[in-house]
Amino acid sequence: MRRSSAKTGFAYAILLLAVLLFVTVPSTAQAQYIPCTIANLVVIRPDSVPAGQTLTTSTSMTASCDNSAPYTLRVDLVDQRTGTVLSSVKLPFYATTPGVTKPINNTATAPSSTGPWVLQIQAYLINGFSGQVAASSQQQFVVNITQYVPQTTATTAFSVFNSTMATFSTYSNQTVQSSTNSSISLTSTYTTSESTILPTLPLIGALTLVILIAAAVFFIMMWRKRKTAPLAQTGKNPKHCTQCGSALTGNESFCGKCGSKQ
Description:
CATH topology of the largest domain: Immunoglobulin-like
Number of domains: 3
Number of strands: 9
Order of helices and strands: HHEEEEEEEEEHHHH
CATH superfamily of the largest domain: C2 domain
Helix content: 25-40%
Low-confidence stretches: 21-33, 168-198, 231-235
Mean pLDDT: 74
CATH architecture of the largest domain: Sandwich
CATH class of the largest domain: Mainly Beta
Number of helices: 6
Shape: rod-shaped
Largest sheet: 5 strands, mixed
Distance between the termini: 210 Å
Strand content: 25-35%
């Protein structure tokens, strides 16, 4: 009986020692456990954006986690003044390949009022089994909202100016373009119309000059003809009285001054 009791006590002692060792000494798996972390959070964003226009942020980070569960990486763009989540992007995160994540883009529409706009990027690693946040990181920044100025008028004027300059250049370099057999599609219509109109200008000027010269010659000839007409009508010199020398008119037989017969 004593021997069996001794053996039983020894067995209990061995079992108790094994339990104590199991509880106090960490296992290899527990020693290699790596908690989830998010570090080196970098947010690229503009310093200012016009009111009512689109804001885009690009976020990258270094993330790592243990492989005991699947995870989801979520990046939120939050308006700090109202606490509203403006944009949320979710991506699967594979714990077997920890490291720098690819840039994650968030977009939001800027408010209509100008001034500072306080925003925050919030990054989370979420456990796929429990749905709880395993790691998180945040970064706050300010974007200045400026007055929105439509660019339609300026763009149109610039386009018209470019088209005009391209047309002028095309016309001025017709020989070069014909030798290289190249053309500008945007200004081909303008080039055709100008090449048709511009060469006719010297022809019109020449015709106008010819007409003016002909008219001048015509008027000079008419003026000369009218000046020589009285001499042509008289034909010869008038008769004079043989006695007193007075000029006789028509076919008079007697002088009207002295009365002598002619």
